[in-house]
Amino acid sequence: MSDSKPHIAQKGPYQVEVEAGKTYHWCACGHSQKQPFCDGSHKGGPFTPMAYTADVTGTKWFCGCKQSGTKPMCDGTHKKL
């Protein structure tokens, strides 16, 4: 996992129901088996998870391609891959 670019977990976002005030740790490396969240697979590599605290309860779309310009949320970048 010494690549400078993260692994594309999926070419599309993950739809997740989040709870206001709860912190989620988004997988930045793309190797987690618990996508879109971190399971520690990044250890020893150049990536670290990104903390996201939900401001409201509801549906959020987390980036699956790991290339978004609005990480950890999807911005449609996967459509260009």
Automatic annotation (TrEMBL):
Keyword set, alphabetical order: 2Fe-2S, Iron, Iron-sulfur, Metal-binding
InterPro entries: CISD (IPR052950), FeS-contain_CDGSH-typ (IPR018967), MitoNEET_CISD (IPR042216)
Matching SMART domains: ZnF_CDGSH (SM00704)
Pfam families: zf-CDGSH (PF09360)
Domain Iron-binding zinc finger CDGSH type: 11-48, 49-80
Domain of life where this protein originates: Bacteria
Gene3D superfamilies: CDGSH iron-sulfur domain, mitoNEET-type
Protein name: Iron-binding zinc finger CDGSH type domain-containing protein
